[in-house]
Specification:
single chain; 7-stranded parallel sheet; 6-stranded parallel sheet; 39% helix; globular
Length: 383
């Protein structure tokens, strides 16, 4: 008899686990009721009984281009350096995990190889076959590989979740996969909306990656707005040259201010000192069109009003809960007009609506989809 009577759950992700908020929520959800082993980059997350650490020098996305071009997709997958590294870590472990939770389609074949008696749950974070379709090279060489991966292995998963309804619908239409939805919501934070400051500029805020296509519309709108307002940007250094460009451009600005990123646990309180969370994401790809990013839920936990573009998932959420304004298109001119139209009373009402919706739009509620899926697979162990 095993010393630990809990079901054995393996959570796999080709990402740095300690900075992957979605995977960390999975670990936190299951660590009490399951003996959790993780496989991924970086140090072990808290609460796991075992961690299988991928070597830092192995690049997760590297594939043999010749094999991709020749449409030898099985060989391209099995010969990928990260797959070889994972196989070495998992050697001799077939049948030793009761259930496997595979994050992203890239880990699903390895998860199926383990023949877990309870089965495999695949959490497909994005719609992988169209992930970078703005790139011609990606469409020609990589997209067919991901379509093969989903068609060959994704359909074998015992259950599936993804990040939004639009992406779930596309998996169902194209591959017959019926996926549940677990949005990228952070944990609930007990905050009250900060009062609007009479006569003060409207305090806008945005947090996330320093990427040109994610910020250009917002920054262009700040050159067009007519009423007093400020924009604070808390940016990850994922594109250092662009971030340096922004710092230089706004070094003397009293309207746009560039800040370092903050830890996810500190973000809601920091956002709470502002009035409006703003995000307009031009739909340059399928995944951008259907994006429902964690920053939207961060804004809600910060008890902010929201100003978003007409991306279907974001727009539907804002309208359903009365959280703010949705622009008619993705242009800077339309965003500037929407921001200028905001009134003190309207923003205050939107902030109160965020407070009402914060518990429903929190990880505590959203992760129920994972709990039901994994628990259902675990019950197979007892017939």
């Amino acid at each position: 008899m095993r010393a630990d009577p809990r079901p054995r759950l393996l959570i796999m992700s080709f990402s740095p686990l300690r900075s992957d908020a979605r995977v960390l929520r999975q670990v936190q959800l299951f660590a009490q009721r399951y003996a959790v082993t993780t496989l991924g980059y970086g140090e072990a997350p808290e609460g796991v009984v075992e961690h299988l650490q991928l070597p830092d020098d192995v690049v997760a996305w590297h594939k043999d281009r010749r094999l991709l071009a020749a449409r030898r997709f099985e060989s391209a997958y099995r010969n990928a350096p990260v797959v070889h590294a994972a196989q070495r870590l998992l050697a001799g472990r077939r049948g030793t995990f009761d259930v496997v939770l595979a994050d992203d389609i890239d880990t699903v074949p390895l998860a199926l190889d383990l023949h877990a008696p309870g089965g495999v749950h695949a959490d497909l974070h994005e719609y992988h076959p169209r992930q970078s379709e703005e790139s011609l090279r990606w469409r020609v060489f990589v997209a067919p590989y991901y379509r093969w991966l989903v068609r060959t292995y994704g359909i074998q998963a015992d259950s599936v979740t993804t990040v939004g309804q639009g992406i779930a619908r596309e998996y169902r239409i194209r591959f017959g996969i019926r996926a549940g939805v677990v949005v990228n919501a952070p944990h609930y934070v007990d905050l009250e909306p900060t009062p609007m400051l009479a006569g003060a500029p409207l305090r806008l805020v945005h947090s996330g990656n320093a990427q040109r296509h994610r910020l250009d519309v917002i920054l262009a709108a700040m050159d067009l707005v007519e009423r007093p307002m400020t924009l604070d940007l808390y940016l990850m250094p994922n594109d250092p040259p662009y971030l340096d460009e922004l710092r230089a451009r706004y070094a003397d600005s009293d309207r746009v201010r560039i800040h370092p990123p903050v830890r996810p646990a500190e973000l809601p309180a920091l956002l709470n000192a502002h009035d409006v969370g703003v995000y307009v994401l031009p739909p340059v790809s399928f995944n951008h069109l259907w994006a429902l990013p964690n920053k939207i839920f961060d804004f809600v936990q910060g008890r902010l009003a929201l100003a978003v573009g007409p991306s279907p998932e974001m727009a539907a959420l804002v309208r359903r809960h009365g959280l703010g304004v949705v622009t008619d298109d993705f242009s800077a001119e339309t965003l500037a007009a929407a921001l200028d139209s905001l009134t003190t009373e309207g923003v205050a009402a939107y902030k109160r609506a965020s407070a009402v919706a914060a518990r429903e739009l929190s990880a505590e509620q959203q992760v129920i989809g994972w709990a039901k899926a994994i628990d259902t697979l675990a019950t197979r162990l007892n017939g």
